[in-house]
Amino acid sequence: MIQKKVCMVGTFAVGKTSLVRQFVESVYSDKYHTTVGVKVDKKVVAVGEQDVTLVLWDIEGAETGHELRQSYLRGAAGYLLVADGTRPDTIANAEALQARAEATVGSVPFLLLLNKVDLGEHWRVDPEELARLRALNWLVITTSAKTGQGVDMAFATLAQKIMGD
Amino acid sequence: MPDEPNGTIHVESQSLADEAGMEELRSLLLGPTEKQLADVHALLTDPQRQLKEVAHILPAAIAVRSRQDDELTDAMAPTVAAALDRSIRKDPQPLADALFPVMGPAIRKSIAAALSGMIESFNQTLAHSLSIRGLRWRFEALRTGRSFAEVVMLHTLLYRVEQVFLIHKETGLLLQQVSAGGTAVQDGDMVSGMLTAIQDFVHDSFSTRRDDQLETLQVGELTVWIEQGPLAVLAGVIRGNAPIELRSIFRETLERIHLQYGAAMKEFKGDAAPFAPVAEMLEECLRSRYHEAEQPARSGRLLTPFRIAAALLLMIVLVWGFFWLRNQRRWDDFVARLRSEPGIVVTDAEKRGWKYHIGGLRDPLAADPQVILRESGIDPRGVVDHWEPFTALSPEIVLARAKKLLAPPASVNLKVAENTLVADGFASHQWVLQARQAVRWLPGLGQLREDNLLDLERIEDPLLMFQLDRAELVPGQEDKFTRLSADIGRLQAQAQAMQKNVRLEIVGHTDGSGSEAHNNTLSAERAQTVANALRTRLPVWTNLTVEAAGTKERLRDEFTEADRATNRSVTFRVISTDAR
Predict the structure, then answer these.
(1) By C-alpha distance, which of A25, A30, A15, A23 is closest to A85?
(2) What is d(CA A128, CA B498) in angstroms, rounded to the nearest whole number?
(3) Band of the pLDDT at A77, cuts 50, 70, 90?
(4) Which domain range does residue A158 map to?
(5) What is the C-alpha to C-alpha distance for residues B362 and B366, in angstroms, rounded to an integer?
(6) Per-residue b/e over B164-183, b at no fewer than 16 CB within 10 Å?
(7) How far apart are alpha carbons A36 and B204 in whole angstroms?
(8) Would the CB atoms of A28 and B170 count as touching at under 8 Å?
(9) A-chain residues within 8 Å CB-CB of B172?
(10) For residue A101, what is the domain's CATH number?
(11) In chain A, N or C: fewer CB atoms in 10 Å?
C-alpha cells in the first residue's frame, strides 16, 4: 500500500489536533505535543481505486516560521496549513509557515484550512485576504473540528492532490 | 700550373655565391617555419621552458593515466610513502595538524563505544550486588573462580529481539517490519513515524553535531536500538540485555539493505511494495537467547502432543532398558556359572544379531548347560549353544567318572586328592580288587588309597576253631581273635562315622557227627561263646546276632579229620541293613 507523510502545520490553538482527532481514532496521547512536539497518527483514505495510508504528523503550534521544526517537515508529501477563522493573525501566520514549509520540503501539495467555522458570529475572515490567497493558487477549505464539517473532504482533497489528481 | 690556383679561386668564389643563394632560397621556402623550428630547438635545449610545459600538462596527464590503470599509483606509492616518512621525521606537526580533524572523532567514537560497554557492565554489577540472587551469584563467583561481573553477565545475558523496523529516513515512513512470534505488534506506520519524530526531537534538542544520532531508547525492560544509515534507519525492539555483537548484526543488515535497495530507497515515493523481500533480511535480526534456567514456559498446556509422545517414548525406552539390563545380567550370570562349572570350558559367549551364542568344550559328565539355562530365566529360544565333548581332568569330573565306573557300595566314600582316588569305609573284597584294577585306567588317577578302607574279607574270612563236641575254642587262637576283634572294632567305628547300620552275624557250625538237634544246640553255644567274648572287648556293640547253622552251612566236605576240625568253628557275616 502507498504511504504518504502529511504534516499539520499552524499556530497554537487553531485546532490541528482536534481536526486530526475528528479524522482518526488516535493511539497516542496528546501529551506527545508537549514532550516531543509532534504526534503521529494514520488514516487510510481512498483515492479513486487506490487506498493510501496518510501518516499524519501533527506538529506543535508555531507562531513564526522559525519556530517550525524543519526536521519534522522533512519528507512530507503534503501538508495542511491550519488557521483559526476567528483569529485573523493566524491566517497571516499561515503564510509565513507556508513559506518555511516550502523552503524545507519543496513545492508539495498543501491546503489552507480555515477552522472553527462553527463559531459563526466570531468569524473574521477578510474576503479580500482570501481572494488574494486564492489568486496565489491556494486551495482554501473551511472546516469545523467540532461538527466535522469539511474535515474528511480536506484530507481527501490533499490525498488526491498528492497522488497527482 | 698557373691555371690551377686560378681554377681554385674560381671554385671558391663560386661556392660562396652558391651559399648566399641557398640561404636566400631557404628563407624563401621555409621562412614561416624557420621561427617555429628555432622555437622547438630552444624548447628542447632550455630546461626552464621544459619545466613550464610539463607543469602545464601534468595534472591532466595524471588524471588521464589514473583513469586508464593503476600503474601510476603503483609507481608513485613507494615515493609517496618515503616522502611521508621523511616529512614526519623532519617535522611531524604539519601532518598531525592535517589529520587532527579526522583522527579526533574516530578516536572519540571508539573510546566512547568501549566506555559505554564498560559502564553498562559496571551498572549491571552494581544493580545485582545487593540482592539475594546477587549473593548467590557472588557465592557462585567464589566457587567457580570467575569474576562477579562475569557471573552477573552470564546470568543476565538474556534477550529477545521482538520487533524490527526498517524506516525510510527522509519521510519516516515504514519500509518493512518483522516481529518475533507471540509479541505484540504495534502499528508499524505510526511507530516508525513517532520513532523518527523522537530521533529528530532528540537530535534537534540536545545534539550539537550533525552525525550524532539517537542510538538507544530504554523503556523498562525494553530497549530500542536504532541503527542509522544514509537512507534508512533500522530500529530493533529488544527485551532484556542484548550483547553488543547484536549491534554489528543490525549494522551489517542495514548495510546490506542499502547495498541492494539503495536506489529504491532514493526513489521511494510511499510505495513499500518493492521492500517486501527485505523482511527476510530483517528476520535475521530477530535473535534471542535465554539462560537455560529461565526459559519461558512456552505455554500453560502441560499435555501437548509432543510431550505425550516424548513421555511415551521415554517410557518405552525405560521399559526396554529394564528388560535389556535384566537380560544382560541374566546372561552374564549364566555365562559366569558355566565358566565356574567343572568339566565345561566356555570359548564363545556373545550376542550375535538377535541371538546369544554360547559354546565350547564339555565333558559328558559335566552339568547340563540346558538345565542351567532353564534355571537362569533366559528364554532358551534366544540362545544357540554348541558343545564339543572332551575329557576333563578337574577333580570333580575325575571323581564323577570314578564313581560311575566303580559303582562303589553305599558303605564307601570316594574322593580325589592329588591324582589319587581315596576310598573310605568298608567294602567287599571283590569290590576292593575291582577298584584297584580299574583305577589305573581312569584318566587323571594313578592309584587307590585305602588307608581307611576296610576290606570285609578280614572279618568274613577267618574261622575260630572249636574243640570236638564242646563250645570251647581250640587253644592258641588268641592272636587271631585279637586281630578279629580289632577289625570288628574298626568296622564299628567306620559304620558309626558313616552313619550306616551294620549288623554282625556270628554263625556257629558243627561237623557232621552227632544228631542234628545236638549240632544245632552246640553251634548256638559256640556262636554265643564268641559273642560273649566279643562283648568283653567291644562293650558298645549292640547290633550283634547269633546264628546256629549246625551242619547246614558246611564250610568243607568232610573227607579228613582236618576237614571236620575246620567245620567245628564260628564264622562272621557283615550285613549292611541300609539299602544298597
Answers:
(1) A15
(2) 151
(3) very high
(4) 2-162
(5) 7
(6) bbbbbbbbbbbbbbbbbeee
(7) 11
(8) no
(9) 5, 40, 55, 57, 74-75
(10) 3.40.50.300
(11) C
> What share of residues in chain B are helix, strand, coil (percent, to 5)?
55, 20, 25
Asked if residue A80 has pLDDT above 90, the reply is yes
Rounded-to-integer distance, Cα B428 and Cα A151, Å: 139
* Per-residue pLDDT, B125: 61
The predicted complex's ipTM stands at 0.84
Number of domains in chain A: 1
B147's grid cell: 569474576
- How far off is chain A from B217, nearest CA to CA, in Å? 14
User: Which amino acid, one-letter code, is at B18?
Assistant: D
Identity of the residue in B170, B189, B203 whose CB atom sits nearest the CB atom of A53: B189
Residue type, B388: E
How far is Cα A138 from Cα A111, in angstroms, rounded to an integer?
7
The most confident of A101-110, B58-67, B136-145, B295-304, by mean pLDDT: A101-110
Separation in Å, CA of B116 to nearest CA in chain A: 26
Cell 510431550: give the residue.
B307
Is any Cβ of chain A less than 8 angstroms from the Cβ of B296?
Answer: no
Beta carbons of B270 and A27 less than 8 Å apart: no
CB distance B510 to B522 below 8 Å: yes
Number of other CB atoms surrounding residue B248 within 10 Å:
11
Q: Which residues contact B451 (CB under 8 A, 6 or more apart)?
A: B422
The helix/strand/coil state of A116 is coil
CB contact under 8 A, B172 and A69: no
Contact A116, A44 (CB under 8 A): no
A3 chain-B contacts, CB cut-off 8 A: 173-174, 189, 270-272
Backbone angles phi, psi at B474, to 5 degrees: -65, 130
Determine the Cα–Cα distance for residues B137 and B140; give it in Å rounded to an integer. 5
Say how far apart CA A165 and CA B236 lie, in whole Å.
37
Contact A38 B171 (CB under 8 A): no
- DSSP percent split of chain A into helix, strand, coil, nearest 5: 40, 25, 35
Q: Tell me: pLDDT of B103 over 80.
A: no
CB B439 within 8 A of CB B445: yes
Taking CB atoms and an 8 Å cutoff, what residues of chain A touch B201?
Answer: 36-38, 69
A161 touches chain B (CB under 8 A): no
Q: C-alpha angle with apex B427: B423 to B430, nearest 5 degrees?
A: 110
C-alpha B16/C-alpha B409 separation (Å) is 172
> Grid coordinates standing for A120?
459563526
Cell (9 digits) for B395: 577333580
**Dihedral angle computed from the Cα positions of residues B410, B413, B416 and B420, in that order, rounded to the nearest 10 degrees:** -100
pTM of the complete model: 0.43
- The cell for B23 is 640561404
- Residue B321, burial from CB neighbour count under 10 angstroms (0-12, 13-18, 19+): exposed
- Residue at grid coordinates 517537515: A73
End-to-end CA gap in chain A: 18
What is the rounded distance in angstroms from the CA atom of residue B353 to the CA atom of residue B96?
A: 81
Using CA atoms, how far residue B96 sits from B87, B91, B302, B343, in Å, is 11, 9, 68, 99
Nearby residues of B43 by Cβ (< 8 Å), 6 or more positions away: B49, B50, B53
B275-304 tens-digit pLDDT: 989 998 898 888 877 554 444 444 445 567
Alpha carbon distances (Å) from B511 to B469, B551, B560, B570? 9, 6, 11, 12
Average pLDDT over residues A7-14: 87
Nearest to B376 by CA among B408, B341, B335, B409: B335
